[in-house]
Design a protein that fits this description.
With 361 residues, the chain is α/β, with parallel strands linked by helices. 43% of the residues lie in helices and 19% in strands. The chain has 13 helices and eleven strands. A hairpin with a 4-residue loop joins β1 and β2. It binds nicotinamide-adenine-dinucleotide and glycine.
Length: 361
């Protein structure tokens, strides 16, 4: 039988657990801290029919309410945030009450932001149900919503009190969504985890077959990688920026294509662009791009934009990304696989040249 795994994340003000279970949602390790508190579970129209009832039953000692939102990145907006806030207001939630997010990264980010903003901050628990949210989005306290100008432009750092993962929930996840999660796993390999990159390459079949032991290993390792970085730099003053490998390109792709690409797919495409730019600027070998493309393709992830988006459009959108400082591009580039670094002051012409080498001719 596969055992549960706990990864703790220790920050200056608090430590919280990421508890990974093979086949159930289980609150037993955090039950004591929930005593007597009202709970609002936020989910969406896809996830709620699958898991809401089971999760509600876990809170049998609490007064529980639900807030069910529409499904999709395009609903990660002010209207959905307002709906959560209105639910909290109508049920008179106060600072001792708790929000719970049940869903993927979209629900997690919005619930976290509602928790950060209601009464200047209440507690919340993440129950992520996509691979991407289990290995990345639910961990580390970045919360937020999108603005028409770009992704996640409105938000706050607000850490959850716990992350509860049931990997069995991945069995209902559409294959394309599962693969998109692998895009973020490959990212950890590209940042500073070369052995993990090779491990992913070796375990493609077992991962695709969702072998429980392999998924437990995959998810716990990624959570540990992320915890290690967030523990050093909770508010992204330095090393945490490495977690944005592929993201400035990726966010531009998501916005330019009106979210035609899933977040993990766009991050994969963005990593290919980052590798190309790194090679053109002389930081790494051209073969790094190919190695990334091979692994992305092994998980059926795109390596070339299909849409007819110009390099200039992507560059313009990259300029509205949060990582632009004093109008200068700050991007995560690679000195090799597993050798990512923060590169400052990158010129538009260099970015355009790399983008043109990655777009269909
Ligand atoms: P998502 O939340 O849109 O979920 C993907 C789809 O899967 C949705 O349709 C959802 O309803 C469905 N779904 C979720 N769980 C399911 C299940 N178990 N079975 C069947 N269907 C299920 O997408 P995502 O990839 O989880 O998250 C992407 C979001 O996460 C983006 O908005 C991105 O910006 C954000 N993100 C945040 C961070 C962070 O640090 N806060 C990190 C990475 C990504
Ligand atoms: N996903 C990037 C971060 O959490 O910092």
């Amino acid at each position: 039988m596969t055992e549960s795994i706990q990864v703790d994340i220790s920050l200056p003000k608090e430590t919280y657990p990421i508890i990974i279970h093979p086949d159930q949602f289980d609150l037993s390790r955090i039950k004591a801290q929930l005593k007597g508190r009202k709970v609002m579970i936020v989910s969406n129209e896809t996830v709620a029919p699958l898991y809401l009832q089971t999760v509600v039953e876990l809170f049998n000692d609490n007064l529980v309410f639900n807030c069910i939102l529409k499904d999709g990145e395009k609903y990660k907006n002010m209207q959905s945030w307002q709906m959560i806030i209105d639910h909290l207001a109508s049920k008179q939630f106060n600072r001792s009450d708790v929000l719970v997010s049940l869903g993927g990264g979209v629900i997690g980010d919005m619930t976290g932001f509602a928790a950060a903003s209601w009464m200047r901050g209440i507690d919340y628990i993440q129950m992520p149900t996509t691979l991407l949210s289990q290995i990345d989005a639910s961990v580390g306290g970045k919360t937020g919503i999108n603005h028409s100008q770009g992704k996640n432009l409105i938000g706050a750092f607000h850490q959850p009190k716990a992350v509860i993962i049931n990997i069995d929930s991945l069995n209902t996840l559409p294959e394309r969504e599962f693969n998109a999660g692998i895009g973020e796993a490959i990212k950890y390999g590209g940042i500073d985890q070369l052995p993990f990159f090779y491990w992913l390459s070796q375990e493609v079949d077992a991962i695709k077959n969702k072998t429980p032991e392999i998924l437990m290993q995959l998810i716990s390792q990624c959570c540990q990688f992320k915890a290690d970085i967030v523990e050093q730099d909770e508010k992204e003053q330095g090393v945490r920026a490495l977690l944005n490998l592929g993201h400035t390109f990726g966010h531009a792709i998501e916005t330019a294509t009106n979210y035609h690409y899933l977040h993990g797919e766009a991050v994969g495409l963005g990593m290919v662009m980052a590798a190309e730019l790194s090679a053109q600027m002389g930081y790494c070998e051209a073969s790094i791009r190919k190695m990334l493309e091979n692994l992305l393709q092994a998980f059926d992830l795109p390596i070339m934009l299909e849409s007819n988006i110009s390099a200039n459009t992507l560059l313009r959108l990259m300029k509205s990304d949060k990582k632009v400082i004093n109008d200068e591009h700050r991007l995560i580039l690679m000195k090799g696989l597993g050798g990512s670094f923060i590169a400052e002051g990158i010129k538009d012409t260099d970015i355009l040249s790399a983008l043109n080498s990655c777009l269909p001719s």
